[in-house]
């Protein structure tokens, strides 16, 4: 299996001493109280194996968090803690795919999806989404499905497009899953990173989906602590049992001090999560306004930590791959070509940038990209 585009571009950024707006991680240390809770737990609580499914306190905290924020009726037993959301995706696919089962995916897609589906013995059926709307249609779903289709894997909010599925599209997907008797795997790691007053709607909460959805979340995204690798998968008890059995043969468990800290953080008041969203929206707007002033056409996005430059609309004739290669060496900024998220027939005129950075880093990156834009004439 090849190295991921994130590993490639981050390595190039390190070698060139470039500002890394490619891989999605904040440059701030994270919430001080949650860091202290992890440090305290490391010194005062057990560091031996916690239960494979996760500390009971964290499983209960996840269920309570979703009851308060998304009106879901999960029990603690329906939550399995994992070492990050990618492990949760892997465990889910390994638990639910039988060799030859077909899985519907949507491109642009997180680059772990396709190799994980194939390694689990599944057959990917990829639906191509395109800007500016990135919409899923009934026709595309029907064309991708067959008698072998068993699963549908959805990322919402969608990385790298930074789009949020509206209620109409989610209802369409829910009806399709019910009619076809499919299990939906919902990668919802960006559920708290939404802007413009838009609220995340979990597919699990729609009619007919409670017993056929695996909901995946990430403490790393919620608390801006991407290196912690604490995630979870939520599902009705019969499915959760299968997920836990797959998880036990992957990482088995997750560092208990981090679990304790996350369990405390999930109980924060609504105002705390709103303030985090507002801060990221301010950073998003700072990057977008700076790039627009420099002559770029930008889609700031309505969710995630990413915005995209539309190269064609900006009058830049380079492909996204060529643009991203050149700006590392010539501008000292790393970005990600959106074409890397398509297994075939890619969109080739969008470059993705991460705005989860300090004002100083954003301003310097904008200044460098402005000089590069001017050099193109």
Protein architecture, described:
InterPro entries: Aminotransferase_I/II_large, Kynurenine-oxoglutarate_AT, PyrdxlP-dep_Trfase, PyrdxlP-dep_Trfase_major, PyrdxlP-dep_Trfase_small. Keywords: Aminotransferase, Pyridoxal phosphate, Transferase. One of its GO terms (molecular function) is kynurenine-oxoglutarate transaminase activity. Residues 19-369 form the Aminotransferase class I/classII large domain. It comes from Sphingobium quisquiliarum P25. Helix 3 (56-70) runs parallel beside helix 10 (256-265), helix 4 packs parallel to helix 5 and helix 4 crosses helix 9 (237-247). The mean pLDDT is 97. The chain has helices at residues 5-16, 32-44, 56-70, 85-96, 113-119, 138-144, 167-180, 219-222, 237-247, 256-265, 270-293, 320-330, 359-375; strands spanning 19-20, 79-82, 102-107, 123-128, 149-155, 183-187, 213-218, 231-234, 297-299, 306-310, 333-334, 336-337, 350-354. It is 42% helix and 15% strand. The radius of gyration is 20 Å and the shape is globular. It is of the alpha/beta class. Strands 2-8-7-6-5-3-4 form a seven-stranded mixed β-sheet, with helices on both faces. A four-stranded antiparallel β-sheet has the order 9-10-13-12. The chain folds into two domains: 5-24 and 271-375, Aspartate Aminotransferase, domain 1, CATH 3.90.1150; 32-268, Aspartate Aminotransferase, domain 2 (3-Layer(aba) Sandwich), CATH 3.40.640. The two termini are 39 Å apart. It has 13 helices and 13 strands. The longest helix has 24 residues, at 270-293.
